C-alpha cells in the first residue's frame, strides 16, 4: 500500500488540534534540520487565526515576526487573541509557543468580500511550467543523483518547484546576475476544497524560495554556503481567491541588501495571469565563519533554497 501523498501530509500538518478556547496545538515533524521551517509555523499560525473567524471573511493580510528558532519534533502551541470583530474587518493576533518560549507572532486581518474597481501589474512572460524541469530532476541532471538527504526530502516535498531560469552552481556563473528569481509551484496532489487550507498552504510555500533573490548576485543557490541565513519577518497580502494545488508563478526580487540583512518582495500570479498574493520578507545574511566557536542564536529557520523544509 502507498502512503499519503505530499499534499495529504501537508493538509495533515495544517490540521491543528484545538486544546482549549483560542488555543491550538500543531505538530512539528522531526526531520534532519536545525530549526523548524518558518513557512510551517506561519501556515499553522494562520490556521489557528482562521479557525476563530467566520468563513465569509477570508484573510486579506498577515504580518509576522520570527523570534526564536523552533525545535523539530516538539509540538507548537498557538494562542489566539481575538483583537477585533468589526462590521467589515476582523483582527486576530497569534503567539506561537514552544517549551514555554515564544518563537513567533503573527497579526492577521480578515475582510468580508466587497465589490470594487480593479487594476494590477501584468504577469511577466515566462515559459509554461510543463516545459521546465522539476527541481529534483535538474539537480539529478547536474549531480547524476540526489544526495541521500535531498532524495529523502524530495520524496516528502509538498510542492512541485520549477525554476524559470536554470540553477547556477558556482560563483563563475554569477557575473551580471540580477537579484531576481521566478519559480512555478503547485502542491503535489489535491488539497481539498477548504479555502483556508489553500491560503495556509500557500503561506507555507511563500517562505520556501523568497530569499533566493537576495543571494543570487553573490552566491549560487546550490553548493558551498557562505552565509548563515534566516527569516526575520514576513508579510503577505491576499488579493483574490486561488487554489494552491494549481500552478502559480512566484516572481521574486530584492531591492536591497545591507547591514547583514536582505529585503525580498514577491508577486504570486495564477496561471491566468491574475495577481493573487503579494509578499515581503526580510532575511538575515550573516557571513558564515566556520572557525567561530559560538554561533549567536538565529531568530528563525535556517534557509536552504529550493527545498521543501527550508528556503
Describe the structure in brief.
This protein is of the alpha+beta class. Helix content is 18%, strand content 34%.
Structure description:
By secondary structure, the chain is an alpha+beta fold. It is 18% helix and 34% strand. The chain contains 6 helices and 12 strands. Strands 1-2-4-5-6-3-9-12-11-10-8-7 form a 12-stranded antiparallel β-sheet. A hairpin with a 2-residue loop joins strand 10 and strand 11. The two termini are 32 Å apart. It comes from Streptomyces smyrnaeus. InterPro entries: Acyl-CoA_hotdog, Acyl_CoA_thio, HotDog_dom_sf, TesB_ACOT8-like_N, TesB_C. Belongs to the C/M/P thioester hydrolase family. This is Acyl-CoA thioesterase II. Keywords: Hydrolase.
List keywords for this structure.
single chain; alpha+beta; disordered C terminus; 12-stranded antiparallel beta sheet; 18% helix; 311 residues
Q: Characterize the overall form.
A: globular
Mean model confidence by pLDDT:
87
**Helix percentage range:** 10-25%
Q: Strand pairing plus helix content: what structural class?
A: alpha+beta
H-E string: HEEHEEEEHHEEHHEEEE
Largest sheet: 12 strands, antiparallel
**What's the β-strand tally?**
12
Spans of at least 5 consecutive residues whose pLDDT stays below 50 are 292-311
Radius of gyration: 19 Å
Kindly report how far apart the N and C termini lie. Answer: 32 Å
Strand content: 25-35%
Strands side by side in the biggest sheet: 1-2-4-5-6-3-9-12-11-10-8-7
**How many distinct helices?**
6
Topology summary:
Blueprint: H1 6-13, E1 17-20, E2 23-26, H2 38-50, E3 59-66, E4 76-85, E5 89-98, E6 101-111, H3 135-143, H4 148-156, E7 159-163, E8 180-187, H5 195-206, H6 212-215, E9 227-238, E10 248-258, E11 261-270, E12 275-287
Amino acid at each position: 500500500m502507498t502512503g499519503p501523498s505530499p499534499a495529504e501530509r501537508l493538509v495533515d500538518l495544517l490540521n491543528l488540534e484545538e486544546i482549549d478556547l483560542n488555543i491550538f496545538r500543531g505538530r512539528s515533524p522531526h526531520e534532519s534540520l536545525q530549526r523548524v521551517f518558518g513557512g510551517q509555523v506561519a501556515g499553522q499560525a494562520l490556521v489557528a487565526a482562521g479557525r476563530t473567524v467566520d468563513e465569509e471573511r477570508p484573510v486579506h493580510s498577515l504580518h509576522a515576526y520570527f523570534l526564536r528558532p523552533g525545535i523539530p519534533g516538539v509540538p507548537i502551541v498557538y494562542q489566539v487573541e481575538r483583537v477585533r470583530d468589526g462590521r467589515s474587518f476582523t483582527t486576530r493576533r497569534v503567539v506561537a509557543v514552544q517549551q514555554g518560549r515564544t518563537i513567533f507572532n503573527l497579526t492577521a486581518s480578515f475582510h468580508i468580500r466587497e465589490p470594487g474597481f480593479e487594476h494590477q501589474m501584468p504577469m511577466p512572460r515566462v515559459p509554461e511550467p510543463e516545459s521546465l524541469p522539476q527541481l529534483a530532476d535538474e539537480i539529478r541532471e547536474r549531480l547524476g543523483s540526489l544526495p541521500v538527504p535531498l532524495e529523502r526530502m524530495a520524496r516528502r516535498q509538498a510542492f512541485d518547484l520549477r525554476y524559470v531560469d536554470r540553477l547556477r552552481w558556482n560563483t563563475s556563473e554569477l557575473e551580471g546576475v540580477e537579484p531576481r528569481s521566478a519559480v512555478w509551484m503547485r502542491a503535489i496532489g489535491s488539497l481539498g476544497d477548504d479555502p483556508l487550507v489553500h491560503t495556509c498552504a500557500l503561506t507555507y510555500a511563500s517562505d520556501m524560495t523568497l530569499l533566493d533573490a537576495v543571494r543570487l548576485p553573490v552566491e549560487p543557490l546550490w553548493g558551498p554556503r557562505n552565509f548563515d541565513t534566516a527569516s526575520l519577518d514576513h508579510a503577505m497580502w491576499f488579493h483574490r481567491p486561488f487554489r494552491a494545488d494549481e500552478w502559480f508563478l512566484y516572481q521574486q526580487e530584492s531591492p536591497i541588501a545591507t547591514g547583514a540583512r536582505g529585503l525580498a518582495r514577491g508577486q504570486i500570479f495564477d496561471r491566468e495571469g491574475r495577481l493573487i498574493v503579494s509578499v515581503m520578507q526580510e532575511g538575515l545574511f550573516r557571513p558564515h565563519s566556520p572557525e567561530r566557536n559560538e554561533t549567536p542564536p538565529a531568530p528563525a529557520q535556517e534557509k536552504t533554497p529550493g527545498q521543501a523544509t527550508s528556503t
